[in-house]
Write a structure and sequence with these properties.
The complex is a heterodimer of chains A (306) and B (333). With 306 residues, chain A is of the alpha/beta class. Chain A has helices spanning 14-27, 44-47, 62-67, 77-80, 84-87, 116-130, 144-153, 173-184, 189-195, 200-205, 227-246, 262-266, 273-277, 284-297, 300-304, and strands spanning 2-7, 31-37, 75-76, 97-101, 133-138, 163-170, 207-214, 254-259. In chain A, helix 1 (14-27) crosses helix 14 (284-297) and helix 6 (116-130) crosses helix 7 (144-153). Chain A starts with a strand and ends with a helix. Chain B has nine helices and ten strands. Chain B is globular and about 75 Å long. The chains are: A alpha/beta (306), B alpha+beta (333). The interface between A and B is medium-sized, with 25 and 25 residues.
Chain lengths: 306, 333
């Protein structure tokens, strides 16, 4: 299964959430590949704490795979990461694996040449032969990478592949409108996909949203000190919900809600159970949200029922 | 590089006669990306990588269809184990193999001979002997073989990269529109990297040595023998690679996952996978002992070291057990 992670704006927590979901899937025994398609600023290496790919690798990343026809290097997180959580992946037979296909250090966006969709299809098929889930982390906004995967998934080779889209946005009025534009806008994913030969129903049914950094009024009591503040937040939250419903971004399209967690505001990293239970530096609710999103990804009924 | 450097190197190593050849090879094995196994005519058509070139085809004991050799020109660096680097110019042969229309292998090999040439010749010189490359200088054969098998650094960049060449054969086949590109079972591609030192003066029977890399799914085979052994060694590596892949896939992709999810509610999916393993993978286990006495000796030595057939048998029994358990449960539900 291919999962495309997109967002209209930067700073939505797209990469950090995707990495954490990939980690949760690997913990459950899935073989997961993480593809850093954020060619301009590859960050997945940093989130997964892989020093040799911190800002991409030299000359053997995905950027070179497309522009210079080299092989794309695969880094097994259990072997290359400095994070204890990721190094532990592989310690028990019940674990799967998490493999990073990093970007290039001096990458940058590039226009799509005629042979790239075929090359991209070849890459997706190859990974689909070996991995249960491939997470493709796209750069923020409309980009060449987005066009490339839309064109690639419309190709006949990938007719039997299953793919899904996760669109990340923060829980704010502006971000909701922006994410709506990215999917449903005139130059949005659906419109572009149709031009590239996608089936409207199939593409439409593959679109889901993930709300990030959401302040949970029931949990974050410390953050809300005064009664008027709480009342305002509650009513505004309600307004945001109504606006999301109106924009076809309501419950049926909602793949996950990631709560606000200070640790992720300061450090984009993979959170493991020790961070919650032993070190107590991350919230249980955050890990639970990642876990729920991982479950949703493989829940066939959720993706069928629109 | 200048000529005096070469004569110094030759004097220093005191070896590397032109007659001793080093053969380097790599075999990659994966599942053909199609829902059902292909029938013979379709497999033969799939293996016709070069229009008009003959496809070799053997029906028993397992159906094996091999494409014609592809020729790929190289002019690349050669990593030496102990003494720096060298350069090789010539051609690499590669071909694709399908077994029972289900398993796909890409195999690449090159025979390296030291001729002491300091400069590259015209291409027609190299095309006269396809599959052969000339090493510049006189490196010691063991250094060439060990340099290639050095697990720490995979061949990349400007060095001889048989990984890419064997991979390209696989990608060329997998991209064929004849395939429906659905994946019945997700399994790791396994890699066997091998090197043989072939010396006409080698008196005894060929010698084999197997090592496993720390990297998952990567094995090394090292041989010593006579030039006449080459075809047998090449075939042995391909057979070993297929059996290694079968065993590993049976364990990693079928058994481990089924055991893991025994308690979970994923019966349907696992019944499919276990059935796939029993019906489509188990029949592929066919050690190549029938091919030649030497092949039989090698395989027996390998079995003594690895107990592959015993393990595979045990895996098969376990898969059958699990299928029965899953089957019972699903009927009860």
């Amino acid at each position: 299964m291919l999962v495309f992670a997109a967002s209209d704006k930067g700073g939505t927590g797209r990469s950090v959430t995707s990495c954490n979901v990939a980690y949760r899937l690997a913990l459950r025994g899935e073989a997961v590949a993480y593809l850093d398609f954020d060619f301009g600023s590859p960050t997945a290496g940093a989130v997964l704490d892989i020093p040799k790919a911190e800002r991409g690798v030299d000359g053997s990343g995905l950027h070179s795979y497309f522009t210079r026809h080299t092989d794309a290097v695969e880094l097994d997180a259990a072997l290359h990461s400095d994070s204890d959580a990721l190094r532990d992946l592989g310690r028990y037979p019940s674990h799967g694996r998490l493999t990073l296909l990093p970007g290039d250090r001096d990458g940058g966006e590039f226009p799509i040449s005629a042979d790239m969709p075929a090359r991209c299809a070849q890459l997706f098929l190859k990974l689909d032969r070996e991995f249960d889930v491939c997470v493709v982390d796209l750069s923020a906004g409309r980009s060449y990478a987005t066009d490339l995967v839309l064109e690639t998934t419309a190709r006949p080779e990938l007719a039997n592949a299953s793919w899904r889209w996760l669109v990340f946005h923060r829980w704010s009025a502006q971000h909701i409108v922006a994410a709506h534009g990215l999917v449903f806008g005139d130059k949005g994913l659906l419109a572009t996909g149709l031009r590239r030969g996608h089936d409207r129903t199939r593409l439409d049914a593959a679109m889901r949203f993930v709300r990030t950094a959401v302040v949970d009024l029931g949990v974050d009591r410390g953050a809300v000190e005064r009664a008027p503040q709480a009342a305002w937040l509650r009513s505004y939250d309600q307004r945001l919900r109504e606006s999301a419903d109106r924009l076809r971004m309501g419950r049926s399209r909602l793949a996950g809600v990631i709560p606000y967690d200070p640790i992720l505001q300061w450090s984009e990293r993979v959170i493991d159970d020790a961070d919650v239970s032993r070190l107590k530096i991350a919230n249980q609710a955050t890990v639970q949200a990642f876990e729920d999103l991982a479950t949703r990804l493989s829940d066939q009924r959720f993706w069928e029922g629109l | 590089m200048s000529a005096p450097t070469h004569s110094r190197a030759a004097a220093a190593t005191g070896a590397g006669t032109a007659a001793t050849a080093v053969v380097l090879g790599e075999v990659r094995t994966c599942l053909l990306q199609n829902r059902d196994p292909l029938a013979t005519p379709a497999t033969v058509a799939l293996m016709r990588l070069t229009p008009g070139a003959p496809v070799s085809h053997v029906e028993r004991p397992v159906r094996r269809v091999v494409s014609a050799d592809q020729i790929c020109g190289i002019d690349c660096g050669l990593r030496l184990a102990r003494r720096g680097r060298s350069r090789a110019v010539g051609t690499v042969l590669s071909h694709a193999i399908t077994t029972s229309g289900r398993v796909l292998q890409g195999s690449a090999q090159v025979t390296l001979t030291a001729v002491g040439a300091a400069e590259r010749q015209a291409w027609r010189h190299y095309l006269r002997r396809p599959g052969t490359a000339e090493i510049m200088g006189w490196p010691h054969p063991a250094d060439v073989a060990d340099g290639f098998l050095d697990a720490a650094v995979p061949a990349r960049g400007l060095d001889l990269d048989l990984a890419s060449i064997s991979d390209r054969v696989i990608e060329a086949v997998q991209a064929d529109p004849m395939l429906d590109h659905s994946t019945p079972l997700r399994a790791r591609t396994s890699v066997v990297r091998w090197a043989a030192i072939l010396d006409p003066g080698h008196d005894d029977a060929a010698v084999m040595h197997l090592t496993k890399s720390v990297a998952p799914g990567l094995h090394f085979l090292r041989f010593q023998g006579r030039p006449a052994d080459l075809a047998m060694l090449d075939r042995f590596c391909e057979e070993f690679a297929r059996h290694e892949w079968l065993l590993n896939t049976m364990q990693e992709a079928v058994l481990d996952r089924a055991e893991r999810d025994l308690a979970r509610d994923l019966l349907r999916e696992h019944l499919d996978k276990l059935g796939f393993a029993l019906n489509q993978l188990v029949p592929l286990w066919m050690p190549p002992t029938h091919l030649s006495p030497q092949m039989k000796t090698f395989w027996t030595a390998l079995e003594d070291q690895t107990r592959y057939s015993r393990i595979f048998e045990r895996h098969t029994t376990r898969v059958r057990d699990l299928r029965d358990q899953f089957g019972l449960r699903s009927r009860r539900n």
